[in-house]
Amino acid sequence: MENLTDFTEIGRIVLENIKKTRQEKGLTEETAALKSGIDREQLEKLESGNLTFLPPPYVIALLRKYALALGIYDETLFKQLKESADIPAPKSPRKRTAQSQKSADRTENKNRNLYASITAIIVIAAAALWMIFGRPIQQPPPMEASLPDVSELPAAYTSPTAPPPPSTQAAAEAKETISPAPAEPEKTAVAAEDEEQAASLSKSEQEHSNETTVQKGCFTLSIDRAAMEPGKEIDILTPATGSIYYFSDITMPSGEPIWHEWELNGKPVDRISVGTPTGNRWRCWSRKSTGNRQEGKWTVRVVQGEGVEIHSDSIAVTIPPEEGQ
Fold first, then answer.
1. To 5 degrees, how large is the angle CA 253–CA 258–CA 259?
2. What is the pTM (predicted TM-score) of this model?
3. In CATH, which of 3.40.309.10, 3.40.1030.10, 1.10.260.40, 2.40.30.60 is domain 4-84?
4. Closest by alpha carbon to 17, among 61, 42, 47?
């Protein structure tokens, strides 16, 4: 069971170091929330010294994220904080004993011998199959029919298998009925060029159909996680908006990781991974705390792999007319 007293004391030491560093760097709580990616409401609770609004593991995770963002992460201090919360340290792998090493070597030798035996059987079987089916089959020499000597045949003898010679009139009629086959038209240079253009167009269309495309990208205040669809799309932000989502519907992804890169007034704020696609369609979203800003322009760049931008959208903070008057 964790020692809440030690956890609170060590946590407040960590928190004082973080808060002091933030003040020395001249950062407001709002700026620190944007820089660290922590929700503004959670950061305010940490700054006020409230370390019990979440279970200790989650509080430690938020403190670690806050400290890393400000560049003051103290591994020793955080180790003590984890121990006070009874979070076990990762166990180092046990070293192999001499006996287990011998057993592993023996198993490896058995596997090696087994692979060698299987390989030898495959080679022998392949050689036997080649001997049976691969060798050319010798055809027997053709048998010549023994025909009688023509000089010994009587004058009226005709071969029973040979057709009678056609008469002169029948040969003439056959010559008149047989007409030469029509010649195939030759391909002209214009026809060949048209075929090449058609082939290139079909290839271009096929390549275009395989390109990664963002079918839908929008800002919203909610996500239907069951249907994997965005809520009502919005095109402006009001100062009362605390956080927003950006939704992407991507077709034919390349299989490389997808990122949502958030920018505020043209400056990078956060780079959020939205997964690695595994099919021909990938729907994803990311959430960002806007910090109740009075003005500004948010931009999300959809990036694939090593920084290849495939889409981007922007939304501006606008004061409603009734508030601006």
1. 150
2. 0.38
3. 1.10.260.40
4. 47
